[in-house]
Amino acid sequence: MRGITVRGCGISVPDKVVTNDDLSATLDTNDAWISERTGIKERRVGGITSQMAIEAGKRALEDAGLEPSDIDIVLLATTTPDALVPGTSATVQAGIGVPGGAFDVNAACSGFVYGLVTAAGLAAVGSGRILLIGADALSRITDWDDRTMAVLVGDGAGAVVVEPVEGPGGLLSWNMGADGSLRHLLKCDHGGYLFMDGKEVFRKAVRVVVESAERAMADAGLRATDIDLLVPHQANLRIIQAACQRLGIPEERTSVVIDRYGNTSSASIPLALEDALRNGKVPDGATLLLTGFGGGMTWASAVLRWRA
Ligand code: COA
Hints:
It is a single chain. The chain is α/β, with parallel strands linked by helices. The chain contains 10 helices and 13 strands. It has 2 domains: 2-169, Thiolase/Chalcone synthase (Peroxisomal Thiolase, Chain A, domain 1, 3-Layer(aba) Sandwich), CATH 3.40.47; 171-305, Peroxisomal Thiolase, Chain A, domain 1. It has helices spanning 20-24, 31-38, 49-64, 88-96, 111-124, 147-150, 198-219, 237-247, 258-261, 268-278, and strands at residues 2-12, 17-19, 42-44, 71-77, 101-105, 129-137, 155-169, 171-178, 186-187, 195-196, 229-232, 287-294, 298-305. The chain is globular, with a radius of gyration of 18 Å.
C-alpha cells in the first residue's frame, strides 16, 4: 500500500492590495457592510493564474528542499485558466522546469481538495512526487461595477508537494461530491463575468460543507475533538463560523485568512494552510480537516495528518 505525505508549502499573491474603502470609492458599498457580511477587509488583484502558480510552486519546492527535477507531475487546480487551450498546468510545468506530466483540475473552489485526493490516487498507482497547486485570478472574470461580486473576490495561489510513502500515509480519509443541477447558482460563461445567487449559495454551502466534513471525520474514525485545525475554503467568514458551530470545532482551531485575501477559489485552502504553518499552528503529526465547496456545486473534504 502506498499513501502520501505532504511536505513543503508556498504561496504567491499579487502586490496590488484593494481595501474595502478603495472599493467604496467607485461602488455603492462600504467597509462596514463588507466586513460584517463577509469578514473581508482587503484582497489582492491583478494576478495571472500561471504566474502566481509558478511562484507558489517554486516556493513550495524550496520549502521542501527539492528541485524541479524531483517532481513527476504538476497538478493545477484552477477555475480561471490563462486560456482554454493549452491547460495552464503546461505553462506552469515549463515555467518551473518539471520534467514530468501536467494537467488541470477544475472543481471551482473545491479544486484543491479534489486535487489532493487525485494526487493520492496517482501516488497509489506508482507516481513519484506531485506538485499540487491551487491558483485562481477571479479578478479577471469579475465585473468591477457589480458590487455583489466585486467585494468578494481576490487572486492568489498556494502549492504543496505531495510525496508517496510506503504504508497508509497521512491522507486518513476523503469525501467528494457534486450536484450539477445547482450549476446556475454560481457560474461564468465564456467571455462573461461571474454571477452568483449569494443567498442560495450560502444556504447550500453550510449544509454540504458540514455533511462532507462529518463524513470525512467518520471515515477516519475521528470526532471533532480530534481535529487540531480546520482549514476551510474562505468564501465568507459567516459560512466558516456556521460550519465551525455545527461541526463542534472552536473558531480558535480554524485557519482564517479571508480578511486579507477575500475569496481566492482554488487558492484559498492552501493560502490558509500556509498561514497556519507559518504561525506555528501545524506541528508534525497534527490532524487537519480540509474542506471546501464551490461552483458546480462541488464540495470536498479531507482529513490529513501533517507529515505522517
Ligand atoms: N454593499 C452594500 N450593500 C450591498 C452589497 C454591497 N456590496 N451587496 C448587496 N447589498 C445590499 C443588497 O442590495 C440588499 O439590500 P436591500 O436589503 O435593500 O435589498 C442588502 O445589501 C442585503 O443583501 P443580501 O444579498 O441579502 O446580503 P447577504 O446577507 O445575503 O450577503 C453575500 C450577501 C453575498 C455576502 C452572502 O449571501 C454570501 O456570502 N453568500 C455566499 C457567497 C459564497 O460563498 N460564494 C462563494 C462560493 S465558492
